[in-house]
Write a structure and sequence with these properties.
Blueprint (H helix, E strand, L loop, with lengths): L35 E3 L11 E2 L27 E3 H12 L5 E7 L4 H18 L5 H11 L18 E8 L2 H14 L6 H18 L1 E2 L17 H11 L6 H19 L3 E3 L2 E6 L4 H7 L13 H23 L8 H13 L19
Parallel strand pairs: 2-4
Antiparallel strand pairs: 1-3, 4-5, 5-6, 5-8, 7-8
Length: 366
């Protein structure tokens, strides 16, 4: 667990998460040793991690949930390298009781990376029409890496070695409810239909009752306040002037410290421009931050088992959304439909999120 003194976590170094020269780090890869595996629902190794596939528009908090904002190539399932998933599980165990990791993004296909990059750059161009192309690209890449299919410099998310995470908190009653659901999910004799039903209930508990800690910005906010050490710098400038942060600003500062602490203790490297983004040291960006001579994660694609997992999740989602739309007229004809319908009638809309603020990635209006 991260050390805490009088409710305050250790400071984030002002220079944390620097990645200068990361594209020049050589890659010595062996994908067979660290494959992509799924997180979240139906995952054999990381079922307990809460995921919300933001760029797919999985839940109502996603600004990409509306059809006009759909991103080509986005995935419902979040995938990451096996060692990355194991680190996420370690990080979650380091959190205080009732707190959980929420994973918004991990492995990102090339097309999604390109869509995000081009969208951000276009918005930046509209805001600053006189900005030269070199500055435009440099500013864009603070928040969205250049999409690349080059084997020597893949974008970080395309390696399966980068994750975007936040922390959410349940009250005691709903934490106990979650633990009961987890105990049912450990039953090795649970069939797929029952498992899907229990996972829908687990998701509903988190979506309805887990509140995202206050980090000072929404996820994917594209401005300077998203910088990892923004509140550390602000805190130091206020202190030097004989002043103090407001309670709200101090809360954001402390919550960033907590996230930074658990993720770095679990073996991740931070990123200076985004409080939510962390890299594995096996990636080029992570290796640069860690001062390593080479990386072992190159670009990676979904294998047959990954695609089968994604297809299964998509079919289950389609069934759930259909049954939810049909409401009282819905009829379950299979064991899977029975469990899905029961979960919907017990917990409501499977897309609804009460909290978890997120923004379309674009330059800040401030």
């Amino acid at each position: 667990m991260v050390t805490v003194e009088n409710g305050v976590y250790p400071e984030i170094p002002l220079d944390a998460g620097q990645v200068q020269g990361w594209k020049d780090i050589p890659i010595r890869e062996d994908d067979s040793l660290d494959p992509l595996i799924p997180l979240g629902p139906l995952s054999q190794e990381a079922e307990t991690l809460m995921t919300s596939s933001l760029y797919f528009g999985e839940h109502s908090n996603s600004p990409y949930a509306e059809n006009r904002n759909k991103l080509e190539g986005s995935l419902l399932t979040l995938f990451a390298r096996q060692s990355v998933v194991h680190r996420l599980l370690v990080a979650e165990q380091l959190l205080p009781s009732g707190h959980h990791l929420l994973v918004f993004d991990a492995y990102r296909p090339y097309q999604v990376q390109k869509s995000l990059h081009d969208f951000y750059q276009q918005k930046l161009r509209e805001k600053y029409p006189d900005m030269d192309n070199e500055t435009l690209e440099s500013e864009t890449q603070k928040y969205v890496s250049l999409p690349s299919m080059a084997s020597t410099r893949p974008s970080p998310h395309n390696t399966g070695g980068s994750v975007d995470v936040a922390i959410v908190k349940l009250d005691q009653a709903h934490e106990e409810e979650l633990l009961q659901i987890h105990s049912h999910l450990t039953d090795v004799h649970l069939n797929i239909a029952k498992r899907v039903g229990m996972e829908m209930r687990r998701s509903a508990t988190m979506r309805r009752h887990a509140k995202m800690l206050y980090f000072g910005t929404a996820f994917d906010h594209g401005g300077e306040k998203s910088a990892l050490a923004y509140y550390e710098s602000y805190y130091k400038s206020k202190t030097a002037a004989g002043e103090s942060l407001t309670d709200k600003d101090m809360l954001a500062c402390n919550n960033r410290r907590l996230l930074f602490g658990i993720m770095t203790q679990a073996g991740f490297q931070p990123y200076f421009a985004e409080w939510w983004h962390f890299n594995a040291p096996e990636s080029q960006a992570g290796a640069a931050t860690a001062g390593l001579a080479y990386a072992t994660f190159g670009a990676v694609g979904l294998d047959e088992s990954n695609r089968a997992h994604e297809n299964t999740r998509l079919k289950i989602r389609q069934e759930a959304l259909r049954l939810q739309r049909e409401g009282d007229l819905a009829v379950a004809r299979t064991a899977l439909q029975v469990e899905i319908l029961a979960a919907i009638r017990a917990t409501g809309d499977p897309k609804l999120v009460e909290d978890w603020p997120a923004e379309i990635i674009a330059p800040s209006e401030a």
